[in-house]
Amino acid sequence: MRQFFTTDPYVPPPDPEPVIALMRRHGTRRHVRRGEVIKTETETNRLFLVEEGVCAYYSIDTPHPFIPFLMVPGCTLGDITTLGHRSYNIEWRAVTDGVILVVPPRVLSEMVISDPELSALKIQHLISKEEASLEAMSANFTLPPALRLKILIRQLIRAGSRESDGWMTVPWRLPAEVLGLVVNLTRANVSRTISEWIRQGAARRSGLDLEVHSELFADCQDWLERRREHGFLP
Q1: How far is Cα 168 from Cα 210, in angstroms, rounded to an integer?
Q2: Parts of the chain with a pLDDT under 70
Q3: Could you say which of 140, 156, 178 is where a domain stops?
Q4: N or C: which end of the chain has fewer CB within 10 A?
């Protein structure tokens, strides 16, 4: 799954627990609906924590719209723009119904100044987010379409439930269009690929849920896992 870095693509890891606890002490709950724009590209000083559901960064005003990565519960939105005081050509949207915490941006800014230990944890997390983004772009350029979709689905399972041997439910019921925007495929290509997995017996429908078998991920190679298998790490 990883080709170059130590963070997996498409779904960044959640923030460190002490940072999440800080956000929860100061945040205000807000319910969001699927498709709702949380922040536009012109806003810089906004900070949120995803509590329930999934949000995403959407590219806008680009020839080919895409989603750089998905933000699951425990992930912050706006940490980079808050600390850097810069605008980016992306907007944040809810891709499912959910709950976010609206956090005063000063909470993060003051933490960086006053708490070196938390700041170090946050810096490491920001690096992981950037690694996830770079891994995603690399995967979309170099890996075959079906493998990219497998990797994304595996990441969603790891983030939303527990990966195991056997059958697993893909969480959050994301539409094919959203999955395609992440892995650079059309909605039709995503639907055809999933239908082929079902035909092969590697996936199945259970009501509105998609379930996949662990065997589906047999060809999801990972450079760190390969090195562990051979008894050495970088």
Answers
A1: 9
A2: 224, 226-234
A3: 140
A4: C
